[in-house]
């Protein structure tokens, strides 16, 4: 998947916004103000950092040794960097969804209810 496909897919998720809090080369997707994806726009190949369950993160790194690693400048226990242009699109979508769901599930109950009951 390329950055436009990732952007289009991510922006369809409820409550998602896009920002550039770290400068023009780092596109961040947030749900209810919490980051769930970071794309390094200048990286070649494209790099996408996503939140991940710690046990699953380790398994993915072992299975996709060259394509999934601990995320640079992030807590490597909870964040992976993936190469979305070389991984199967279905896996990239699954990992974006997983990251989004982890962040939503970690939101305060009030924010979760607000998200569920809104047209964001």
Automatic annotation (TrEMBL):
According to the lineage, what is the superkingdom? Bacteria
InterPro entries listed in its UniProt record: YjbR, YjbR-like_sf, YjbR/MT2646/Rv2570-like
What's this protein's name? Answer: MmcQ-like protein
- Native source organism of the sequence: Salinimicrobium marinum
